[in-house]
Specification:
Layout: H1 5-14, H2 30-36, H3 54-64, E1 77-83, E2 86-93
Antiparallel strand pairs: 1-2
Helix pairs in contact: 2-3
């Protein structure tokens, strides 16, 4: 979870315990976020509340193995799954595209 105020407010609204990490902050690098969540070794679901352009870069890196500036809109949810050695986009909800 990003230490930024708005990200903390979003996380608190979920009503579940969370961990704050500067590795997911406003100036975070995609590789730092991926390492912070121990992807893909982590066996449990992980929710990252972070910022653009970092989250788009994380998604691009995990899904295409290339860092690119993908747009993930405010309030969007992208659900990525890693199975059989491959990461796939399982679902995406983006209120800015509605």
């Amino acid at each position: 979870m990003s230490p930024a105020v708005r990200a903390q407010q979003t996380a608190l609204a979920l009503g579940v315990p969370f961990v704050t990490s500067p590795a997911v902050g406003t100036e975070a690098a995609a590789a730092a976020v991926i390492a912070a969540v121990d992807w893909p070794a982590r066996s449990r679901a992980t929710l990252i509340v972070g910022h653009q352009p970092t989250l788009g870069r994380v998604a691009a890196t995990l899904l295409s193995d290339t860092q690119a500036d993908w747009d993930i809109g405010k309030g969007a949810l992208w659900w990525l799954r890693h199975s059989g050695g491959e990461t796939r986009l399982f679902a995406a909800i983006d209120p800015e595209l509605a």
